[in-house]
């Protein structure tokens, strides 16, 4: 029996046991977990520092180190996310439809768990608990496979979760971690059709593409974010400046950070100097643009074709000048990763057209794309942001981790 067989069979058994848990039992456990995470924060941070030291030795960038770091404040934030899941309505058992058919059968369609969720994710260790809390609230078992950089942190977090489960007399196999981060085992997990009901990859473009190519189990595609902000001809330029600075610099290492700026030509000469001056006071940003628009900037470099489709996760931004709203929409739809896009405008008709015609999970008017987040949307700690159109789209909360089942009741009915 391979390690994937072992983890898979244990998860399958655990998913059956979790079906017996009531909403109150699940909420009691999650409150216990939040408390235990805070109480064990010193141990968790000590293990995280081992990962931080190795990452620095490997020359990981400061931005990616920030993704990896766990502090007391961030652990409290993870615990807060778990507590928020407690407050959310339990979708399991929710009746979606109920009716009596022509044959006299009483038919109900109810929400049920997916079963066993596998998740492959990269640097951010908070994902382990975020994903588990949502999976647990929906009676799903979860198998986690984190990145090599966060291995000690993930082991520590899963250890706390498993001890909390045991303390509440719940199967600890509700959460399991694949501690060997080798690519071969990851690919075996992607093909574990006997155990895994759905696989959720959460990370960069390379990970997502690998999963799409290798997976044999159903996949919910998430989160590469080539996020655009379009500054329209009728934009409030003060607002646009504020929004772009927030979306680009607040936390550039996350998938809802802006990577691409599209500007209407009518406001480009006014907006670009204003943005350059203002953003430099917050953090230096490298702008990359086309040759014929370099002169509009004090400091910019020539963009390559790849730059316009790139998720930089850094203080870098591609810039495109357009002559119309239609050109902006076409440009964004061509290069979009279908995550989050925004328009800054005072033109209501332009705003409505942008929201209707842009193909993305979240489309903003006059607001930062940094808001695309399950916690902010009131969904609790998200398991990911789906960029596909099947089953789940956008920030994935509890309902995204459910399926449905038909319950049919008769009284000796037979089909004629």
Automatic annotation (TrEMBL):
Annotated keywords: Amino-acid biosynthesis, Cytoplasm, NADP, Oxidoreductase, Proline biosynthesis
Pfam families, per the entry: Aldedh
Subcellular location: Cytoplasm
Entry annotated with the keyword NADP: yes
Gene3D superfamilies with a match to the protein in the record: Aldehyde Dehydrogenase, Chain A, domain 1, Aldehyde Dehydrogenase, Chain A, domain 2
An MF annotation (GO) of this entry: glutamate-5-semialdehyde dehydrogenase activity
InterPro entries, A to Z: Ald_DH/histidinol_DH (IPR016161), Ald_DH_C (IPR016163), Ald_DH_N (IPR016162), Aldehyde_DH_dom (IPR015590), G-glutamylP_reductase_CS (IPR020593), Glu-5-SA_DH (IPR012134), GPR_dom (IPR000965)
Enzyme Commission number: 1.2.1.41
Ranges for domain Aldehyde dehydrogenase: 5-284, 301-378
Main location group: cytoplasm
NCBIfam families: PRK00197.1 (NF001221), proA (TIGR00407)
Family: Belongs to the gamma-glutamyl phosphate reductase family.
PANTHER family xref list: DELTA-1-PYRROLINE-5-CARBOXYLATE SYNTHASE, GLUTAMATE SEMIALDEHYDE DEHYDROGENASE
Function (record text): Catalyzes the NADPH-dependent reduction of L-glutamate 5-phosphate into L-glutamate 5-semialdehyde and phosphate. The product spontaneously undergoes cyclization to form 1-pyrroline-5-carboxylate.
Protein's name according to its UniProt entry: Gamma-glutamyl phosphate reductase
Annotated organism of origin: Streptococcus bovimastitidis
Gene name per UniProt: proA
């Amino acid at each position: 029996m391979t390690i994937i067989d072992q983890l898979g069979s244990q998860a399958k058994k655990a998913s059956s046991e979790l079906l017996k848990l009531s909403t109150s039992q699940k909420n009691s456990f999650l409150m216990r977990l939040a408390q235990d995470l805070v109480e064990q924060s010193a141990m968790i941070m000590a293990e995280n520092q081992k990962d931080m030291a190795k990452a620095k030795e490997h020359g990981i960038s400061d931005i990616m180190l920030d993704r990896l770091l766990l502090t007391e404040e961030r652990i409290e934030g993870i615990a807060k996310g778990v507590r928020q899941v407690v407050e959310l309505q339990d979708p399991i058992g929710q009746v979606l439809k109920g009716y009596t058919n022509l044959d006299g059968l009483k038919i109900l369609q109810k929400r049920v768990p997916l079963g066993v969720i596998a998740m492959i994710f990269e640097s951010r260790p908070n994902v382990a608990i975020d994903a588990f809390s949502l999976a647990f609230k929906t009676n799903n078992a979860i198998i986690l496979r984190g990145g090599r950089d966060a291995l000690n942190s993930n082991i520590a977090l899963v250890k706390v979760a498993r001890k909390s489960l045991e303390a509440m007399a719940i199967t600890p196999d509700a959460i399991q971690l694949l501690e060997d981060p080798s690519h071969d085992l990851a690919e075996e997990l992607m093909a574990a059709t006997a155990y895994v009901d759905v696989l959720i990859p959460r990370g960069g473009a390379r990970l997502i593409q690998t999963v799409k190519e290798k997976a044999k189990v159903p996949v919910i595609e998430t989160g590469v974010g080539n996020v655009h902000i379009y500054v329209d001809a009728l934009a409030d330029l003060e607002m646009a400046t504020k929004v772009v600075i927030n979306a680009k610099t607040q936390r550039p290492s996350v998938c809802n950070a802006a990577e691409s700026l599209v500007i209407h030509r009518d406001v480009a000469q006014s907006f670009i100097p204003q943005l350059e001056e203002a953003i430099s006071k917050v953090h230096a940003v490298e702008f990359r643009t086309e040759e014929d628009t370099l002169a509009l900037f004090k400091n910019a470099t020539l963009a390559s074709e790849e730059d316009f489709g790139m998720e930089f996760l850094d203080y870098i931004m591609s810039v495109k000048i357009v002559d119309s709203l239609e050109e902006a929409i076409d440009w964004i739809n061509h290069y979009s990763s279908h995550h989050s896009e925004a328009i800054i405008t005072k033109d209501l008709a332009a705003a409505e057209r942008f929201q209707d015609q842009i193909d993305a999970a979240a489309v903003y008017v006059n607001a930062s794309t940094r808001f695309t987040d399950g916690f902010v949307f009131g969904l609790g700690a998200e398991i990911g942001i789906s960029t596909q159109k099947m089953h789940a789209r956008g920030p994935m909360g509890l309902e995204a981790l459910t399926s449905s089942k038909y319950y049919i009741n008769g009284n000796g009915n037979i089909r004629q």
